[in-house]
């Protein structure tokens, strides 16, 4: 009974703070009564396993040093001023309950989903009550020792070695297989499956579209040449222990031609970014992002690069630093001359991901812990607005479309509620206001991605992290003119145990590819579903032994041109 | 005997690497044979004392985390690739010998000078064989809690409350007294002695000259209002645990009027800089300087702000990061709007101090461990040149003068040799070349400061850190036209046990003030010596019970206008 009371208290605490009161919340008594006296010890082997489990499942939201970010801190003793109790106060039973059942606020139900076993959850619950292990540094020499150029630039083709429409290729992340599949978007043929390393997070296309860059959770960047037949890995480097973002130089103009010239790796740990040669991945410059947050001025050694986008109008990247809430505009025009120019803008905590408005002058990024979207005027290099949208916005890169009533809109879904917020982007009295919220039927949020295309009149929405297994399998399609929900699409029953995640249009904007993200040990639970955007009918299912845990899909043309 | 052999080996190692071989150097055998097996232990009280001694005497050159900078690392085990042995390999006897006797390379002879006792040296020698203690963070709240505005802006006078020529006031650092004296440069009267905290490193004048800012080794900035009668402390803040630099905003022009608007504190530890309100010292923005060095790409958490200068032509500060060898040009025009723009330039390790050329377009800074001066073109925001000058250049801010043969020159002395290097600054084939070296008589360097003035034809040079007590007391005067040594001046014998350190002209450029830096427990060993710059005769000696350990002296007009 005591365990359950603690769980109730702890859940109450968490939910209370997250704005979703479900009764029985008594933070003061919890922190006084709830101190656990149980001794905690792990063997070296258990500690190493727990550390890896933590890295795989927890560090993204809670931080490697467990100081908290999207999720609360997970330190043995609560830091001063934190509304969350220490893990020693929660105790093993309560922590296990959280990991097993998740929370409506966005914590996944790792146990109920069967992703973590009871034994693993017990291990994690004990690990979390010990102090976090320190993060080792990573120097340039470490990166260089991992750097491999498989095909030197001079040995690469000077024109495509096939007659395919490579601008409509899709790169598909096969997350738990540690691979990326290249699929011809015209013919739907699988062209290549490339080893990329652990849990690729995203792909980015070079400005020309010729190259794909992958970034793995393990900090490895790979470079894939789509002109080769078949497309092949031409270079790789490990630039971090934990990473989420990669992008490329996209500017050509008065200040130089940087098409396919540089790449940038944005790391969680160590907290830094690395500027790479775009054609070889040679590391050129490392910049640390540790700093002081914009609100309390607390020092975060672990100030992680949450996301990066490349400007089309200036030679710069927008680098979003999660913990400090700073947006760094990183000008790369001087890299060859040994200089990097950075505009550090105070924005909001904790920054996550985002995308351009339709003019590509403004970048909109989620400060998800504050339920806000920050609008950065990248041309004027200043924060233009900060907009409250809903509970924990998760835009991916968001979606841009024109609506007859509201003009040009940029949209985001939410992890923590069932709404899509539409922000007006045209100059005028409504600019940077939420002019409309679209509602998803049913309880809770869980939306990871939304997507549209200039040639489509549909806004596509997933709900991958909803707690309801049925809603996890559902895709929602709204009409961008009427703003009505026009269709709910479900993963066919022939593909069991899968969640629907991530949507991508083809180059022409008349097809939408959706991942059915299943179990890594059973190909039949995985698929790519291809829908006709005009009829909203399922027109093709791609499956295969190679198709394991597909997540993100990246169309070359749309990715290179930031079409979403 | 074994102890002496080790000392010989260790000295040989150090000197070999520093380029001054004195026989018997056998690094390979030393690292194999020299491993000490003696057990090391300190009581908590001993450890705390040793830590403070290390902070006071060693951390400046070796770093708080003891990874090395101007001096070698002092870690128990040598880092990979380091030419210096670990302190455990050196052992207690060898380390004690170094601390007692110093090295010709620049390590002071703390024992022989009587600054550290035998017992303190023994304590340090043991402390250095244990791992360095971690550096705690310092958050904005810590700074705010130390922040005091003694006289609010609205209660300060709107015009000077005295009829003195305050632009010729001198601020004199009374280092070990923890005070700053304000002296009227016209009348030589002592106006005020102000408590500033531990070991003030420098003063800077606000752009108007009205205010002095002090920065202490303890990270405390004080603000002194010279319009008050007497001049008084009006605000203070502790923005670090260890610091060396402070400067002000000096720009007025198209991009705004920043006269007396901001100050900046450059810290050693934590490694950051803090932008402060110039009139209240309120902390506005903290930026971490941890990073990766420009040569090997090694990560330095302790990447310390070595020095800062303010541009007169642009709204920016030049922030020199010691360990990484990066020069950061920090644009402050957007601070009020929540943005800071930083140009990160790859320069050279390990950066120390420097000053403007006569046009104030170029900033010249010592990379003292590489025996080089880096020339930064602050207008074009790039490294213009890197010039080898001599062994461990220590320019202070250097000295600018016109010579009929070589044109405009910028000069630096050296810690490690007896030369003054003259670098041509005018455009042409000789620009940024060492066109001439002036030699100081006698063995060894030890020069900390050199100084001249546009109205003087003399270049003044100290030799404070020379190992020879007689040379420590000597000031050298060169003719800037003939480049001949025209006079050697010695501290009068009536002031025993003092070293000559730091030279400062008065506003008119016809007087030079020199510190006789003596013992903190005996005022008679301390003085300010005032020389007539035309006759080179000693015209006045300032002494007093208040005049304890004078070091830097800062004339308001010359400091505000960067005249040196």
UniProtKB/TrEMBL annotation, chains A, B:
The keyword Phosphoprotein does not apply. InterPro entries: Cyt_c-like_dom (IPR009056), Cyt_c-like_dom_sf (IPR036909), Cyt_cd1_C_sf (IPR003143), Haem_d1_sf (IPR011048), Host-pathogen_enzymatic-act (IPR051200). The keyword Glycoprotein does not apply. Pfam families: Cytochrom_D1, Cytochrome_CBB3. GO terms for molecular function: electron transfer activity; heme binding; metal ion binding. Transmembrane segments: none annotated. Keywords: Heme, Iron, Metal-binding. Residues 45-132 form the Cytochrome c domain. This is Dissimilatory nitrite reductase (NO-forming), cytochrome cd1 type apoprotein.
